Fold this protein.
Amino acid sequence: VQLQASGGGLVQAGGSLRLSCVASGGGFGRYTAGWFRNTPEKEREFVAAVRTSAVKYADSVKYRFSISRDIAKNTVYLQMNSLKPEDTGDYYCAVEPRGLISSRMSAAEEYGSWGQGTQVTVSS
């Protein structure tokens, strides 16, 4: 699976961005899809993940970020609202053909395919 992420940019604190990640190939509806980020403090920090009948968020982004997917378009989105300077980082999408159990949806090592990063910068 090849992934192409886009949508990063520079935004002021309190603003919004929407990231997109398009996957090649079929079977996307069965995948677990996630977003992770690299920040100056953490590498491959879990942000959010989605699979059939389950969505999971990191506590730091809960109620501000929303993950969704369009199976027909093989695309997963990350809507980011009320952005904070600490959200600054390189954001990566990842997919895994298996339907991961909830406790493993936040584990980067469970994902087999990764896209290139898209940079998000939030100014104060």
